[in-house]
Amino acid sequence: MLAALLMLGLTGTAWSKLAVPMLTIRDAESGSIYGTWSGVEQFSIEFVHSVHQSPVSECFQVEGNRIRPVATRFFAFGAGMQAELGEGQQMSREGDALVITGFTQTFQELKYIVGTVSDHILYIHQEKEKGERISLRERCGKNAHIVIRISRTGFAGLY
Q: Which neighbouring-strand residues pair with 157?
């Protein structure tokens, strides 16, 4: 397979553009896999903030094998929330919500502790709309320490 890819000149960046993005959620300690989803380009995590008891939505874009925050939407300001804007970031209002955009940093992985009182919900976006809704409490359990990563596998349409 590698020889065929090299013959076609598909190395590095070219291969990563053809390879299908795969979102994987694992247990942070054991590495056990809670779930995988292929073809993910954008997803979000929604939860109720444990201090403010108000909703928070974090939207992410897949870039290669990395994850870039696109927007954070929240309704209460203070403890546990971003206090200052980073370079290039903007804050705006959408109704009662505050929305931060303009993130430039990317991450290899995201770590969450799934809620014990309220759930964390994973949405796999389809054509920029929220698609599949996955309860992380049902899938991983209350207080589960999870890691979300992106890898690349196969080729689009050639599994």
A: none
